[in-house]
Every structure is written in structure tokens, then in C-alpha cells.
Design a protein that fits this description.
- The structure is a homodimer.
- Chain A has about 500 residues and is an alpha/beta fold.
- In chain A, strands 1-7-20-19-16-14-12 form a seven-stranded mixed beta sheet.
- The longest helix of chain A is centred in the middle third of the chain and has 22 residues.
Chain lengths: ~500, ~500
Amino acid sequence: MASRRGRISAKRKQGRGVPQLPYAAVNNPYPPMEVLTAGQVEKIVDGALTILETKGMRFLHAESGRLLVAAGGKEDPAQQSIRLDRAMVLEHLSWAPASFGLRARNPLHDLTIGGNNLVFTSVGGPAFCSDLDKGRRPGSYAELCDYLRLVQSINIIHQEGGGAFEAMDLPPLSRHLDLYLAQFTLLDKNVQAYALGRDRTVDCIEMTCIALATDRRELLDKPAVLGIINTNSPMQLDVPMSEAIIELASAGQVSCVTPFTLAGSMSPVSLAGTLVQQTAEVLATVTLVQCVRPGAPVIYGSFASNVDMKSGAPAMGTPEYTKMALASSQIARYLGLPSRSSNTTSSNCVDAQAAYESEMSLWGSVMGHTNLVNHAAGWLEGGLTASFEKLILDAEMLQMMAQTLEPLAVNEDELALQTIAEVPPGGHHFATEHTLARYENAFYPSMLSSRQNFESWQELGAQDTATRANRIWKTLLDEYQQPEMEASTQAALNDYVSQRKKEINQR
Amino acid sequence: MASRRGRISAKRKQGRGVPQLPYAAVNNPYPPMEVLTAGQVEKIVDGALTILETKGMRFLHAESGRLLVAAGGKEDPAQQSIRLDRAMVLEHLSWAPASFGLRARNPLHDLTIGGNNLVFTSVGGPAFCSDLDKGRRPGSYAELCDYLRLVQSINIIHQEGGGAFEAMDLPPLSRHLDLYLAQFTLLDKNVQAYALGRDRTVDCIEMTCIALATDRRELLDKPAVLGIINTNSPMQLDVPMSEAIIELASAGQVSCVTPFTLAGSMSPVSLAGTLVQQTAEVLATVTLVQCVRPGAPVIYGSFASNVDMKSGAPAMGTPEYTKMALASSQIARYLGLPSRSSNTTSSNCVDAQAAYESEMSLWGSVMGHTNLVNHAAGWLEGGLTASFEKLILDAEMLQMMAQTLEPLAVNEDELALQTIAEVPPGGHHFATEHTLARYENAFYPSMLSSRQNFESWQELGAQDTATRANRIWKTLLDEYQQPEMEASTQAALNDYVSQRKKEINQR
């Protein structure tokens, strides 16, 4: 990842029409906002450990259960759960690294997960895609490839999120292979696995070895694959997720353990109670990961929001979500783990609600020092849709966040006493030497915002933000350049996919 | 102002259709985000003091100049400015209070300006008004009164901003009297003065005495009037603003001193240089206030954004704006003054840009511990328009901010270990005793956000945020209840206005 210094001095990459900040690591140099006292963090973690000791967690995957019992877990037949005493949990936790690298096909896009780093990931997993032209619909593989091209083109996105939406025109059992092929050929950024079950996870690891010209031995020390592991809250882990954990951990790759809890449905209605349960689920799952391979990288993931108690519907980007993002990162730091949150909204279109709920999610993540902001760009409609226009809206908001985190320079040149003295009272600074020497790169170059006055804006069609975003993603797509790949690598990827599709079709 | 405790326990005020948080003080209990080091703050303040010593500030109002010279200022004929040495400035600064109260007609709406308090003020000063029904237009007095009724009805707005827009159907020279009459009869919150020149300021002070059943003697110790004092950056103060200062300060009322600087035009293109100039202008003006009356309350105001260097247009809600809000509050704290910022956007409609630029402005203000957030609700189009729908959008965002600042409760009840143990793995918390006892008030009750699923949302007309906001302000207006006023007070206000209009018409 380019250094902060590199970023500031780099000439801004200007496409034909879309100004962008250059690709660079983003970190928050200011202290994290801490919404819990040290004593409150201890109480929550103690509560989680108590739950694991007395109630345990249910593991539907028999092999996972056996691994935990072999390591000291106790079967609880009444709960069909495995109880884990605190000494065991804390010992396993101590083996997990506080930060680690994550390789990309292009080494300039290698990531660091941990510390003050913020990694922004594009949306992954929605069922639908949408844009202003064709509306909300099941997406095709061709549309998915376009979405991935945009993720590659947008510099502020550090990581691809494991498939922006399902390619509904492809067979479900082999669809992930086409996704991986697109991820590794259309992007040279780090890409997430589609970590649902053993085979899909193994396929990602194998194709990563081909695409990065590496092997499983090297991958053990230099991870490149990250899978999102969702628990089935409350207090349960299903078979596909457990299989993914075993494949990821045994290969030394990253399990991003993320309970999906809506306070009042999958967890207690109280925020503190939700944090207890979330922490218990993360700790139990981290223990499983460390049973598979001590030292395997894990992330403390949080997706804690609340239900709308009038309708029972999920509510996203709420004040509760913001507080939970802040508190979760704080708990993760206490446990010595990197953290993950998301950029969420319930809105069904790219309007003001989509922006303010996303901002609330992002500020909670950024102020809390969340290390991985999943779904950071593109998520709409409570995560059911990946939107082409929301991708651009989020990219603008992420860039603004990154620019806000750049410290102010305070030196003789920037203090500008001489210039202030030069300009007469009531005059202007437009034409001073100081201004002329700096104005081109003095301020954040917006990708999306309109600064037209009302009359010009009306004359030019009174375009709102979503309409401008529509034009921008089309321009970016026009300008897209596929990263180079050795012909032999491309052939090996193609061969792997063909071979695996044959196997799947023969079943 | 109701206490934090009062707020949490207060039953939520539910109108027929618009849920709201109860009226309450908002404060930020977390440490401020500090973007400058202590050494950087000192350098900026030292730079400002150096400018005042060597270049000075131009005061177009002769009486103000005489006051400053009498207190030790030195006339600089070349610059037509008055130079102020640092000892003089710092001595005058030391007389200004770090925090103070501000009375409202209803004592429950009294304000505290300073410390960790955040006061949210409605938009003041635009030339136009707008709503979705009639578009952007010059506003009438009837429309202004409707806007003021909404400001009274929206609990999260603590202070009215001195007239949301100009009532263009009224004569310019007496228009302020009709505004004051509306402010004091339609609201019982604190209202800002229309502090342009001597007469308008005096009229506000006199009508405040009538409306609050107080007199100028009591007002000296218990201020109730706040006027926004904009310098003419760079380094100049005009006659109407100086006249307002003299009337406000001599009556012991509040001057909110706010340079309006767009880096690259009215101030240096560098952020540090803009902070130097802004601080110099504030310090010179604060010195004038303290010359008029030692101890008169003042606020360090900042309105520092940047121009769009491609077009020269003002750019609002930018990362630069956010950083300047954070840095300005930090400098104000160093100087021992309360601070002021704004909620800004360049957007011409109530869309995603309006939301994300406002969020960037608000987060900078809230994280920086700004004490007075001016234009916190309703501002659109770079401040040229007061929008009825933006007022609702901002109210929602402000409420979310206030709720985010409410600390998490962590106690046995909230930790909910018993409930977590009760619910079987993979079950749900909807029907637990813990949930049922708490769900009604567990989460932030949104005023504006939609949580409908896509299909229901489409069936009900696919309303975006602005469309829903349009319905909400109409409901609030239907539900508006005018605060009671003694008939004699009303008569005295009417008499004052008639008498003054006569005087103005006889000129």
C-alpha cells in the first residue's frame, strides 16, 4: 500500500472526466472515540465469557464440535451446545494476531489489517443489482463484471467484497468459479472469497495461488484470502460457515467472524446485551479457528443494528448502529483483534436517507478505528441490492472521509503571514502569488458534488446526485483498463475453472 | 434547559403522526477530536497576534476606531487600519466569559453556550425559500411565519436563527419588526437578532425586554439576545456590523463574531493561513466588544470553507470545511471562548449531496465540541435558500446525532445475561420478557427514514426522502400550537411595532 507521504505527493489521477484521489492506504491518526469506559468493556467481555462457560455455543458441524471438545470444550446435551471455559477461550484468543498483511495480485494493492488502518471494501452478497436506467433486478454475469470493473477503477476502494451480487444467469453450484475468474482477471486488488461451504472456499484459495503465482506453503505466512464468517445469531454456527473456517484457518487465511445481530430479534433488545452476545459468538468462533491452526488471522466483526420495533423490519445506519460500531471496535482492541463494521442503509433509492444512514455508519466506523469497513461502497436497500449509483455516492463519501483524516499542515508556508499582510483589508486572495502557486491541488477534488449556482443547475437539467452518479459510473466504465496478466496465468485460471465445472456437472 | 436525566426519562412527545425526541439540551460527553497539536494551536494564535500588531484590522465605523485607539490601538494611515498589540488583545480577551446563559421566553428553553453543550439553531438569512410544491422563490411573510412555526415545533432545534428568509412582500426598512413580532409570538424558544445596523439591533433588545417581561438592567446579567457579526474578510469590519456590536455589547448581549472566509478568495488558499486570518479577525472584533463593555459575552465563530478552484464557486460541507470546524473549536477553547460553526451544503435540492455535505459539517461540529451550530436546520443552496424539506431532513440528522451522543448503559439489566441464556441457540429474542418490557422505547424513533421493504415502498409510491419530508412538515404545521402569551404582552409588542413603523415611515 502506498505510504501517506506517497499519497500526498502523488499527482492526482485524472481520468477523462472523473477526478479521483490516488489509490492509497487510509489511516486515522487521531485517538479512537471510545463510548465505553474501561470498566464497561471488562463487564461486557466478562459477560461473554460467562455465557460461553454456562450456556456455550451450538456448532452444527460435527467436526468443529470434535475439534473444540478435543481442545477442552464440554458438550452440553441439553443445549446441544459446547461450553468453553474462560481460560481455554483466552488462551486461544492470545494466539490470534492483532494485525496482519493481506496480499493482492498487484503488490501496490497489498493491505494491512489492524492498527490505525482503515480498509474500504465494496459491497458483497446482495441478491439484486440496480441502476437508474433499468431499475432493480436480478443481475447477470455481464453486469457483475461491469460492477467489478468499477471496483477496480475506484481508487478509494481497497478491497473487492466477494461478489457485488449474484449472477442469476449462471448455475448456482459453479457460479462462484465465474466470480473468481472475474475477480482475478478484472481486478488486481485484494478480493474476498465467497466463503459458503468447503468447495467454494478451497476454489478461492487454489485460484489465489494461481493468480498471485504463489503456493499454499507461502500463503501460510502471507495470507491473501479473506472470508466473511456469519454466525447464526443467537449462539449458533452452521455447517457451511464451519467448513469455510476449517479451510481458511488450515491454509492460514483470514476468517472475518461477524455475528449479524439486530437487537430485539437475534440478540437482546439492549445494546449492552447485544454486545455481550456478539462478543461471545466471536470468541467461540475465534476459539474454533485457533483450534484448527494456532495463529491463523481472525477479525472481530460486528453487524449490530436494531429492528424497527413498530414493524419488525431491520433498521440500518441508525444511532444505535453508530454506537455499536464504536463500541465493537473498542471491545476488539481490548481483545487484541482487528475489527470490522459496515456501511449500511435501509433506503430503497439513492436519496438523502441513503446518504445520511451511510454517513452515520461510516463516521462510527472511522471514529472507532474499525479496520475493515465491509460493504463500504454500493450497498442499498438493507443489503438486498448492489447499486451502481450508490457505488459512486459511497466512493465520494469515502474520499471525503479520507481527506478529512489528512492532518493540517502548519508551517511557515501554510501560515501565510506574508500573504495576509500583503492583501489590503476588504481585498481578495484570488491573485496572490501564494494562491496561484497552490490552488490546483489545494482542496479536495470532488467526484460527484455540484457547485453550480441554482440558475446554471436548472439550465443544465437540475440533475440530482443520483443522476450525476449515473453518468459518472458510465464514464468510469468507458475509461476502465483491465490490469495486465501473464497469458500462462490466465490459461491456468481458465483451466482450473473448466476442470472444476466438469467435476461439479458430473456429480 | 432540561437535564440529560430529564431527557432520558421524559416520555417521548408523539404528535399525531410525527415521532420526535423531547426538547432537551444536547451535549457531547466524549473528548473533543483535536486535529491540531498544542504547538500548532500556539503557532496559529501567535500568527494572528502578529498580524494584528503589524498590519492591524480596518474598522470602517469611526466610533469603533476611536474606542480602540482610546484603549491603546494605533492608527496605521497606510493600511487605513488600527494595529493592536498582543498585550492589549490578550487583556481584552481575558474579560470575555468562557460560557454564559441565554434566556428564552419559555424558561424551559433557556440555553447554555459553552462547555460540552451543543446548541442547534435554525437557518437564518437566505434570500429565498423553497419547497417541493412551489419550488424556489422569494418568500412572503406568511411563509416566513409558517417556517417559524415549524422551528418552534421541532424539538431538536434549540434556537431560531434570526429569520429563515426575507419576507419580500414587506418593506425592507421595517421588515425586521414584523420578523421580531413573529419570533416572539410564534415561538417561545430563544431567537436570534437581525443584527444589521443600530436600529434593528436596538429594536430586538427592546422587544426582548417586552416579550420576556424584563428590562435592560436585568438583561445585563442575563443575556437573551444574540447577533451574528460577520467581518468583511479579509481584515475589515463594516459600519452596520460595528453598530450592532456597540448596541449588543453595551446591553451585555452576545456578539457571535464570524469571519466568512472561503480559502483562496477571502483568505489564504492554505487552511492554516485561513485559521490565522480568521483568528486575527475574531480577536480584533472581540477586543472591540470588550472595549464597549468588559465581560460582554462573545463567541468565536468560524465559517471557513473553500472555493472550488475550477469555477471559483463556494464549496460547502467539504473535507476542508470539516477540518476547519474541528480546528476552529480547538482554537476557541485555547482562547477561552465558546465556538460557533454551521451546517452547510452547496446542493440545490434535498438529495444525497445535501445530506452528505450536511453530515460532514455536523460531524465536524459535534466531534469538535462546537457550542453553537448555526444554520443547523433548513439551509440549502450554499445558504441562498431556506428549504422546508431540508428543515425536516436536518432535524432527523440532528436527532440522530443527539441520540448517538447518549452514552450506552451497561448494568446488570442491560447486559441481559439471563435473557441470552434463556433463548435457545438459533432462536429469537422477539418474545422474551426482557424485550417485551423494553421494546417501545429501546431505539431511536425515526421521523423521516423509511424501513419499508422494496415492494411495499414501490406500492406506496416509491417516495424518496424529500417527498416524505414534504408530508412531515405539513403534518407538523397542522399540529402546531402557538405558545401562550399574556394579552398585555402581545399588546405591548404590537404597540412597539406600530410606533416604530410610524417613525420609520416619517423619515
